[in-house]
Amino acid sequence: MNGRTTDVAIVGGGLIGAWTAFFLARRGQRVTLIEKGVVGAQSSGVNFGNLRLQGRFPGQYPLSLRSQTLWEDFDALIGEDCEFEQTGHLYLAYDEEEHARLEGYAKVSESYGLAIERVGPADLRRRWPWLGERAVAATFSARDATANPRLVTPAVARAAARLGVDIRENTRVAAVDRSGDGFTLTLADGATLSCGTLVNSAGAWALEIAERFGETAPVFPAGPPQFVTEPFPYLIGPSVQAIDGSVIFRQIPRGNIILAGYPRTAADAQANRAPVPPLKTLAAMKALARVAPMLAQCHVIRVWSGIEAYLPDMIPVIGPSETTPGLFHAFGFCGHGFQIGPGVGLCLSEMILDGATPTPLEPFAIGRFRSATTVSEKFRKEFD
């Protein structure tokens, strides 16, 4: 690889990097995707697999809806089945304050064209009899979906490779330097790679590149604790989430229940460790039993986590560098990157090749961290 040249180098082989490589290669670009481990090994491959539209940050809706259209065409676009299923998503409220918040989410979703169904207590129990008696209201979005995160990023990477993308796994970037109008990457083995455009999609490690070019963001690495139970007869169709964030779960066709635990746990990005403390498992199962009492006695058979990058305002960084032409950032997805991943990759490819994208991305600019940082209330509740 020494002395090689490519049009675009992408550092970070998660879902964002893989989708960006795919869309650039579809338009004839020579692309090299560099990943320090294997593609999809961190947050892209260990998340809950939720493709939820309702309840998002309002400024994210144009991107989110564009991305959902790509997900709905995934099999044709990528050529593999990654268990995409339009299951719908059920949001539950347990008191009037939560009900009011649920209604606020619904109105925002509807303002962007998403169909939201309000469900009262009687209809809740009639349609989903496995629910407990305590929920006072719910909203349901039939367009929300799920996919298998362990399958998706490798599949997108394979599709990109078929288009000519050079994928370099187990390859660390030791240095990145400006070289004329482009960049030179020095790899850990001493090899070099020159490129005209550089995409920084390195997740919790993205600051190593951003700060090299005078930009920063208050990234916090954390792990999303995930759990899977023994299999049961298939009964639970939608993804189910308590609006207070205490639990979100879904049943896969094989019968197992997958659930995500809250709060999240601090991770060690340098040691590459994201623990799942045993108390997390107990808390998750207690929250699950509150929502679906029939699952109170089920057994957890496996737990896992990975390393995600969080920002205090719970909004990712997406877009061009404000100091260095040719550098683009996409990191800090705060546990919400799986759904918007295809859209982010498409938008980045448009910005790189066309100079702009029709999807508004202004809220995601890295420059917002030059002034006082807004801390989201959700961020305060997200961690131990």
TrEMBL record:
It comes from the Bacteria. GO terms for cellular component: cytoplasm. GO terms for molecular function: oxidoreductase activity. Keywords: Membrane, Oxidoreductase, Transmembrane, Transmembrane helix. It holds the Pfam family DAO. Residues 7-351 form the FAD dependent oxidoreductase domain. The chain crosses the membrane at residues 6-25. The keyword RNA-binding does not apply. The keyword Transmembrane helix applies. PANTHER family: SARCOSINE DEHYDROGENASE-RELATED. This is FAD-binding oxidoreductase. It comes from Bosea spartocytisi.
